[in-house]
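Pipeline run #58 for the internal structure catalog. This entry was flagged by the ingest filter as a single-chain record with no existing model, so it goes straight to prediction. Upstream metadata was stripped on purpose; only the residue string is passed forward. Reviewer on rotation: M.T. Logging verbosity set to normal.
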Amino acid sequence: MILVLLVVTPILLVVFGYFLWQSAMNNYGYNIFGWGVLIRLLLAVIACFWSIEIGIFLLIIFSLWNFITTWKNTSLFIALFSILFQPVALWFAFVALNKLAKEIND
């Protein structure tokens, strides 16, 4: 049962995140997973290595910034869900880049 959850949960997150992104792109022409969003979240995560308090503070500020920007360009529904899925997208991008770096270095 746990194995099924470990396999199904990431697949559902990717599928729902894709439909959320597609809805924002088709209806509003706005990329909710743009480079700016990922860079802001990455800066907050990197700041956590120096000071957890500063990292959490930046994560809150950047998440609020992402929420307001997304809400301004799309709808409240998409903005609320994008706050949940933007860190997931950052994690998937980090894992993919990490695997790519390992393949290049090996």
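catalog note: The two ends are 35 Å apart (CA to CA).
catalog note: The chain has one domain: 2-105.
status: ready for reviewer M.T.
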